[in-house]
Amino acid sequence: VAKIKGIKDSIYAPTRMMSMKDANGKDLNVLIVGVDGVDALRKVVRADLSGVTISGDSVLMPKYSAATGKDIPLGKSVTFTSDVSGSQTGTADAAASDTENDGGQSDGVQTLTLAPQKVDYRRISANYAAVAFVDAGHFTNGDVKANGHIMLMRIDAESAGTTLNDVFTNVQNAFSASADIDVSGPVAERTQWETMINGMMALLVGLIAVAVLIALVGVANTLSLSVIERTRESATLRAIGMTRGQLRRSLAVEALLLSLVSGVVGVALGTLFGWLGSYMVFSLYGDTVFPFEWTTNGAVLGVAALAALLASVAPARRAVKTPPVEALAEA
To answer: Rounded distance, CA 251 to CA 312, Å?
Structure first.
């Protein structure tokens, strides 16, 4: 897996599910992961780990619960107790883990009391309320008996010249022969969201293409009616010296004003509704950002302007072909 294109770093660590009580006395299930120091963890976890140490008497805890998003209140020390069922399944962050069950046999109650350090890292795994990191020596010296393993990976698809979906698919394929391995984590969630959103966007693009055709006919129809209603005006302008080219340009400018004003209003309203929809959906999972795609919106306005110019060709041709005397007589 570590050789897959797009996998920048990875660590393979023992795990065990344990329970603890926070400062308010609330029970919390925590996946304990053994790592060889904070430097190894820094390679795969996107968080500010400056000033953090993972030693034999400390544990690194998340600041917020992955299940509720609320702050986890902790005292000066926390006591972890092993689940007496003795059978847990490990998971992975954006990659995979394997599981080494002990056949469902209880290995007795194990306790581990450590001093907590809190750092804002989230979504290591959506399967647990919290994932805590301890020194791997606790697993080797018998303080904690591992009943699973986790593989944490850091993905940098952009610099590797591949896509996030391709990396995730290759990771899944690498573990496809092992039914006990669960591939999960933030990258898996992001890939699923992107798949759904891309499908919705493809449908919307098709609808927008139909809307553009309708708008093109609408602008042409509006200009045609304008030419018919202003036959006397156009004839008068031609009679007092306006050239055919100037008349064409005036109708083209009118079409541009129609398309650009409506385009700017559409972009503004669409952006506001998009921001509102994103906030309602994604605020449940974390901080929501409100980007504005200048390039995309500029391209939309450019296409609208081009469509308006094309729509003005037929009405302008009809206006300039009618002789001024004949147009005044008909009006």
So the answer is: 7
Say which residue the tokens 């891309």 belong to. 198
Between CA 67 and CA 123 the distance in angstroms is 9
pLDDT tier at 215, thresholds 50, 70, 90: confident
Q: At a CB cut-off of 8 Å and minimum separation 6, what does 132 contact?
A: 30, 31, 32, 33, 59, 60, 61, 62, 80
Backbone angles phi, psi at 59, to 5 degrees: -140, 135
Q: Are 303 and 216 in contact (CB under 8 A)?
A: no
How many Å apart are CA 135 and CA 143, to the nearest integer?
11
Q: Tell which residue, 249, 112, 126, has the closest CA to residue 183.
A: 126
Q: pLDDT confidence of 265, banded at 50, 70, 90?
A: very high
- Angle separating helix axes 186-229 and 164-174, nearest 10 degrees: 150
pLDDT in tens, 102-116: 333 345 678 899 999
Q: Kindly state the DSSP code that residue 96 receives in the 8-state scheme.
A: B
> Any idea which residue has 């004839």 for tokens?
235
Query: Residue 205 to residues 156, 290, 297: CA-CA distances in angstroms?
Result: 29, 21, 14
CA 122 – CA 61 distance, rounded (Å): 10
Angle between helices 244-282 and 313-321 (to 10 degrees): 160
| CA pair distance 282, 189, nearest whole angstrom | 12
Cβ-based burial of 145 (10 A; exposed 0-12, middle 13-18, buried ≥19):
middle
- Both tokens assigned to 67: 């299940």
CA 27 to chain CA centroid, Å, is: 32
| CA separation for the pair 305, 277 (Å, rounded) | 28
270 within 8 A of 207, measured Cβ to Cβ: no
In the chain, what is the greatest distance between 2 CA atoms, to the nearest angstrom?
Answer: 105
Q: Residues with Cβ < 8 Å from 208, sequence gap 6 or more? A: none
Residue 14 in tokens: 């023992």
CB 120 within 8 A of CB 63: yes
Q: Which helix (H) or strand (E) holds 108?
A: none
